[in-house]
Design brief:
The protein is α+β, with helices and mostly antiparallel strands. The protein is built from twelve helices and twelve strands. The strands form two sheets. A ten-stranded mixed β-sheet has the order 3-4-5-12-6-11-10-9-8-7, sandwiched between helices. The protein has a two-stranded antiparallel ribbon with strand order 1-2. Helix 3 links the parallel strand 4 and strand 5. It is globular.
Length: 312
């Protein structure tokens, strides 16, 4: 176990500026209580350090630093970074990140994806890490809800204008109705679900205690469920971290109905809806069809020894 007191105190002091995936309760839920290492830079900008949570596992005597399950972004952050002028943002990174990088423990493999606000990560390049670009798709929730609907593609609007008889969207806390639908998504991709029901239930209950999760289901009579979306959120951003549909739900626009409901629900309380989408073509098309705009974020990686030689 790690002593993360300084990290926890930092997050408590700047609570409204700490993204979901950097919050201590999230890290405890997905990695285990203090089974993660909260690094705090010795160097500061405006008397404030940067922080970096580290989660490490090992297999076959090879250590690996990576993101826990369902954790879209990680990497270093400086609370309030988005409010700074771009030149000041570069100074924050240049002044505080090198110290964090030096604190990263030796490992055979390192892979993080940095929160989208941070588009400058030269200290990682300078330290021998590789930088890559990935894309997420977001919707600005500050605009009128009518404008959000206007940006939907024509086929999405047609699906939304069709009602599914005797079905309605409900808020639920019953993961047992949602998890089989989520499994369907991975089965259609011929992939195993990358986490267990117990893991998701623990995360859901932890988030529920923090009032930072919603599960919306499209249900009919006898609680027959066509689909669902699982959403987590912080002070500014809503993250779509999991969705599931049965075959009938796929054909009837259930996903679009659920996302439209979500956008309306959060439109007056949050600033950004993040699809947290993959780079798969069909997912990209779906995100774009609902008005999602592409935003680049950085992937940082480094491999050593046999891991690098084998390309794993």
């Amino acid at each position: 176990m790690f002593n993360n007191l300084r990290y926890r105190e930092y997050c408590e002091a700047y609570a409204s500026d700490i993204p979901l995936f950097h919050q201590p309760w999230w890290l405890d839920a997905v990695a285990g209580r203090d089974q993660w290492n909260g690094l705090v830079s010795g160097a500061t900008f405006a008397s404030k350090p940067s922080i970096l949570p580290i989660y490490s596992t090992s297999k076959w005597f090879l250590s690996k630093i990576h993101k826990p399950a369902l954790t879209t972004y990680q990497g270093p952050i400086w609370a309030g970074y988005g409010m700074l002028h771009p030149l000041e943002q570069m100074r924050v990174v240049s002044k505080t990140w090198p110290d964090l990088i030096k604190q990263i423990p030796p490992t055979t493999s390192f892979r993080h994806t940095i929160f989208p606000d941070f588009q400058y990560a030269y200290p990682f390049h300078e330290a021998g890490f590789e930088l890559g670009i990935r894309y997420t798709y977001t919707i600005d929730l500050n605009q009128p809800i009518e404008s959000i609907f206007k940006n939907f593609r024509r086929d999405v609007k047609r699906k939304l204008n069709k009602t599914i008889d005797n079905y309605q969207i409900v808020e639920s806390s019953d993961l047992s109705l949602f998890f089989p639908l989520l499994n369907n998504v991975y089965q259609r991709q011929n992939q195993p679900t990358p986490f267990s029901y117990a893991f998701l239930e623990h995360l859901f209950l932890s988030a529920h205690e923090q009032a930072q999760v919603k599960l919306f289901l499209l249900q009919g009579s006898a609680r027959h469920t066509l689909g669902g979306v699982l959403l987590f959120y912080d002070h500014q951003r809503v993250y779509l971290l999991a969705s599931g549909l049965n075959e009938y739900g796929r054909k009837t626009g259930t996903f679009q109905q659920l996302i439209w409901h979500t956008l309306q629900y959060f439109s007056t309380s949050k600033q950004v809806f993040d699809f947290c989408g993959s780079m798969m073509g069909n997912v990209v098309d779906s995100n774009q069809s609902m008005g999602g705009l592409a935003h680049a974020y950085l992937e940082v990686s480094k491999r050593k020894g046999m891991v690098k030689l084998l390309g794993v």
